[in-house]
Each structure stands twice: as structure tokens, then as C-alpha cells.
Amino acid sequence: MTPLFSAPGPDPEPGPLRPGRKLGPIAVTVGSSHRAWLEPIRERYLSSGRTLSDLSFGVLLAKSKLSELLRGVGHYPRWEVIHRLAEELGIPGWPLHRLWKQAALDAGKSKDWVERSTENTVTIAPAGPPLEHGALRSIVAEGYRRYAGVFLPDQARDAAIEDTFAILWLSFGDALASPDTRRYAWEILRATVKAKADHRDRRPLLSEAAFDTVALRAQTSPEGEMAQLAESMELFAAISRLPEVQLDVMVLRRLCGFSAEKVSDLLGIPLASVRSNERHAERFLEDTIELPPPTGGTTP
After folding, report:
1. Which residues pair with 258 in a beta bridge?
2. What is the pLDDT, as a whole number, of residue 288?
3. Per the CB 3.0–4.6 Å rule, which of 17, 61, 91, 279 could disulfide with 86?
């Protein structure tokens, strides 16, 4: 299937060399929400050809402190600093601010601290993302919402989706340069959902889906609902042990009821790959539990 947005041609050229000490890696203590905005900023800096010394004049921050900021070391940065950095690097402010704010709250900063941190900056206008970004969102948003809802309650689900499209906006140049923009976007969604989901043995829990499967809604008696719930929980536990792509395929096919063609569109992988991953996943599940018949799979 032809990618929705593709960027044929050779791989992009590596970023220009710069004098001075190489920027160190992101600290291992940096959380997922902090990484969500820090990684796009680092990528923009590394591809810009600018040096820390040069950048520090515009950001009004010592070179050593700027290096710490770009590695996630030290105190969580105030928005006014990130705002200046975004202007210097030509990064859109609105999606960056959303991700920065969420990470600040996750880091234990109060809402008052967040407000004080932004009081010296110009009001951020939510300028529109690239047209291709909006087109992709209009096509995949419902599928993303239903997938995320398998792992997360409503409020966390909606936040995960908004974070996904904010991250995609910040890195949309890389998305367009990738083999398939849909695949690039899906991997952002998966990582964002997994970061917010509850885990057991490093596997995301699917328990929220137990109350929203087609089979469960079809039960009319309390006894039938309880039996189906027990079966669903067993199925969800088994699905959570699948490799990532197989898990995605089974969640979208079994729990969301999407057709194989729609799953191919959402994941950005060939239809043959969807069917192959589904067959492998079914064999594993059949060896693990008594697999119920499919509950749908015809949703366009």
C-alpha cells in the first residue's frame, strides 16, 4: 500500500560538525514526559550546526548550564528559558509548551510554579501545525483514541493522544523523511501510551479494555458478564506478553474490532505483515489460553 505521506530519495545528510566538546547523552534519570520535549530540542540543536557558545548568547544562559539543560541534568528548567531556546532554534512554541508543562507537573512542580515560570514570556498562540500533520490526524485520530483506551482511562487516554500529536508536530520534518509517516506517528503513540499505562513485569496492562469489548457488551446476564470478564482478563494478560507489533495488531483486531486493512493503515505496515503478525499471535495465544472467536474485525 502506498504510504499516506512519503519522502522518497536518499537518506538525509548528517548534521554539520561543530567545534568544541561533544554534547553528552540524556541522563538516565530523565523521565519519559521530560524526554518527550527534550529529544526534539536536542535533535534540532544537533542538526543546526550551532555551538553551545553561540546558542548561549541568545538563550542568556551559561554554556555549562545550557549543556546541562540539553542533557536533562540539574533542576527542571523554567519555561522562559525553553521559550528562548525554542525561538533560537526555530521550534514551534505551542506543542513544546504543552509537553514542557506536563513534564513539569510530572516532576512535582506545582501549578503556581508553572504559571510563574511563564509570566515573563509572550502569550503562546496555538499556531496551526503543517497541513500534512492535520490531514494525518484527521485520518488516524479515532483509531488512536480506541487503541489508547485499551490501556488508559479516559482522561489519561486523551492526554496521551494530545501528547502524541504535539511530539509529532515537533519532529514532523523527521516524520516526513521517514519511510512512512504513519509508522513514525504510530511509534510515537505506542511509546506515549506505554509510558502512561500501568505495568506488570514491564508489560503494559490491558485491564481497562475488559469493560469495553464487543463480547462483554453482548452479555445480558450478570453471570454472563462475570464469566466474560474473567475470560477477557485472561486474554488481556496473554496479549500483553506478545511482541510489540503482534500486540498492536491483536489489540486493534480483537479488542477494537478494526479490519485488517484499517490496521494496516493505522500501523503503516503492509497488509501481509498485519495478517502474518496476527497468525503468529494467535498461535501463541492458542498455546497459552483457550482463544475465543473474533468479536469483530470489520470496522473500517
Report:
1. 299
2. 82
3. 91
| E strand map for the chain | 199-200, 203-204
Q: What is the pLDDT of residue 33?
A: 94
Collect all residues with Cβ–Cβ distance below 8 Å to 285 and sequence separation of at least 6. 235, 238, 239, 250, 291
- pLDDT by 10-residue block (mean), the chain, 300 residues: 40 51 92 94 93 93 96 95 94 93 95 90 71 96 95 92 96 94 97 89 67 52 56 78 95 92 97 97 85 55
Q: What is the pLDDT of residue 202?
A: 74
What confidence score (pLDDT) does residue 235 get?
79
Q: What are phi and psi of 50, to 5 degrees?
A: -85, 160
183, 268 in Cβ contact below 8 A? yes
Count H helices, E strands: the chain?
Answer: 15, 2
Q: Quick check: 240 and 228 in contact, CB under 8 A?
A: no
Is the CB of residue 23 less than 8 Å from the CB of residue 48? no
* 3 state SS of 200: strand
Q: What 8-state DSSP symbol labels residue 51? A: -
Which amino acid, residue 162?
A: E
Question: Which three three-digit cell numbers place residue 268?
Answer: 503503516
DSSP-H helix ranges across 90-221: 93-106, 111-118, 131-151, 154-170, 172-177, 181-196, 214-218
What is the C-alpha to C-alpha distance for residues 136 and 12, in angstroms, rounded to an integer?
23
Residue ranges of domains in the chain: 32-118, 146-288
Query: 31-48 burial by CB neighbour count: b if 16+ within 10 A, else e?
Result: eebbbbbbbbbbbbbbbb
Length of the chain equals 300
- Quick count: other Cβ atoms within 10 Å of Cβ 248? 23
pTM exceeding the 0.85 threshold for the entire prediction: no
| CA nearest to 41, candidates 69, 1, 75, 11 | 69
